[in-house]
Amino acid sequence: MHPPPSRCSNSRHDGKRERFQHQQRKDQNQNHVSSLRLPIQKHEREILYLLERHQVVIIIGQTGCGKTTQICQYLRKAKWTIPGEKMVCVTQPRRASAQTVAMRVCEEIFASNSSSSSQRCCLGGTVGVSVRFETMKSSETEILFCTDGSLLRELLEDPLLQKYSAVMVDEAHERSLNTDVLLGLLKKVTRKRKELRVIVSSATIDAEAFREFFRAETEELELEEDEEEEEKEKKKKGNDDGKFSSSYDQPAILSVEGRRQHPVRTFYSEEPVANYIKASAECAMNIVRLDLRNNPGDILIFLTGEKEVEECADILEEHLLSERLDREVLVCPFYAGLNNAKQARAFRAPPRNARKIIIATNIAETSVTIEGVSYVVDCGFVKIKAFDCERNSETLQVVRASSSSAKQRAGRAGRVRPGTCFRLYPEKYFASLDKTSAPEIIRADIAGTILQLKALGIDNIAHFDWFEAPPVKHVVVALELLHALGAIDDDAKLTSVVGAKLAELPLEPKLGKALLAGCDYGCANEMLTICSYFSIENTCFLPARGGTTSRNLLDEAKANFAAREGDGITSLNIQRGYAWNDRNRRGFCEENYLNFRTVQRVQSVRAQLKKLLTQRLDCMLIDNNRSNDEDKEKKLESILRAICAGFFSNAATLAPYGGGGSDDGAAKYLTIRNKRTVYVHQSSILYGVSSGLPQVVVYQTAEVNNENKEYIRNVSSVGDLRWFKDVAGHYYTF
């Protein structure tokens, strides 16, 4: 028999648990106290009054005024929510902001009602969150935070949003593609559901433009009155539309003052910096070396993406290790792909006599508020997705941020005290910046959006009530692609065999078609894995750290999984190794330079896609573990054919001389359709391969660098050009 654990052992663990719970209660109480000081508080009665008198309310409030976290709580206190019956929905343009704000509201509700149990106000209880491939809600949920894309998918099942009493579209000024489409659909829903309230809130939106968009026109009102007269039976059954006044259909505008903004000094670099990642780290280190007592406050660095954030964090960690400072410095990366615990570090106050460096993407611009920042380092760039009709693909591009964005970033330094902003570009560049960023609908691939609209019964895309219509050329290219995928017929109607199923899948159309093709080719299990890995934007391999030795170890780890057929088959090898090491999967990931959280997220995505395929789309999953070499070859061909069926529009052949010619060792290909030169991206398993490269490949996405070189990602081989005739004979002419 083993002796019972000692009392001191128990008390030690109990002490840790008590300290953790004490810190958690302290953070929650601080959140509750700070919420009582927010500028929005004095407008609570006014907001509720306007929602009683108007169906649409537009709220203008500077970042930090409390509109995102408080308005939903006001509605809950005013009994706009009923557990199990009615909820209030708050949309966010980004996954990370939806999760972060949901947790903040959850903590505030718990802190304000200490008599309630902690379980009730954990995420999934009173406050829920719904993002792509991840939903936490229950019958108790009264406030749901979600991405605008998640609510669009919900409209497919519940076109009138019957479970919501109010929908709040937050951060509308960002003008994301999903936000613009959601506004058009909400306008349509409000005509059918008079009791539904819509709140449009933002820091910088053009209020009059939104008022005009939602304003009911006279002809529309007359048509609605005629329809109401024809539906007398519905009125007898309790339709109470008559209780609304004539002003109810006219949107109201409320302006909320922001927090007191302290002055922010702005400094510019004399010349453009050669490397904005290293320059950002050096600027931050110069601030760290200043005396903390005379120069208090944390540092917020704005960079363009996850890779850049992690690279800057590594540089800072190296500098901090090499220098002996008399104070602690915490380096806190902050981006959408980071887990919740690491994101929370960015919001937590640093210990006494310590300084915090937050390295963030533009998510920290307006979506979330990080307290205690006195210094901002602005690289001046932002990474965006842009659809290129010539390339017929969506590419990632690093472009100059707008002047509005630059002002938002600088404003983060003046919340608690006078602040300082360092812009890593000359002052003359600022004057030439665009005032605002172009709306995403102007530059995005809208194939998925059109597919969703058609699934909602909106066949005439031209007559849809767009807040801002997409370019005609983009619509034509999107319709051409959907027709090639078999999602729409010759009359641009949604097809039942492919189109309706594609609309059910939370994947881009090309990736969704590859998954459905897997069902047809008898390799649905394998395609579930490949599509799950391809749906995660971040590579599952960790970046090399620590110089040449680290890079060599990373290359060795990649070689363990590498497949000459490309990234799709490589992801199957990774999944196989992960599944076999079920006793110590974290250790397996660490040994093989795999990002454990990314691989875990892939498993979650795969489980949800599997559920969709089997329960909603009637796809049979066959486990075939036969070891016959001939069967393996047939299975491999089926998998590659399925990938080709989805991404045939992104096809390329190996360039002359074995694909050589790039300075960085990337193989060179020529696209089939318009003979563009493209290079294999460094995230691909085929990067750096000098011999035995596939003659024909398809790829998922492309990225254009500052030199206008196009790099292709998630590359897979095509066994024979004749495959294209089978899957897309109408798309190519050979």
From TrEMBL:
Instruction: Write the Enzyme Commission number(s) for this entry.
Output: 3.6.4.13
Q: Does the keyword Hydrolase apply?
A: yes
Q: What class of enzyme is it?
A: hydrolase
Q: Which CDD domains match?
A: SF2_C_RHA (cd18791)
**Which catalytic reaction applies to this protein?**
ATP + H2O = ADP + phosphate + H(+)
User: Helicase C-terminal domain: from which residue to which, for each copy?
Assistant: 286-457
Name the InterPro entries on file.
DEAD-box_helicase_OB_fold, DEAD/DEAH_box_helicase_dom, DNA/RNA_helicase_DEAH_CS, HA2_WH, Helicase-assoc_dom, Helicase_ATP-bd, Helicase_C-like, P-loop_NTPase
List the PROSITE patterns: DEAH_ATP_HELICASE, HELICASE_ATP_BIND_1, HELICASE_CTER
What keywords is this UniProt entry annotated with?
A: ATP-binding, Helicase, Hydrolase, Nucleotide-binding
Descriptive protein name: RNA helicase
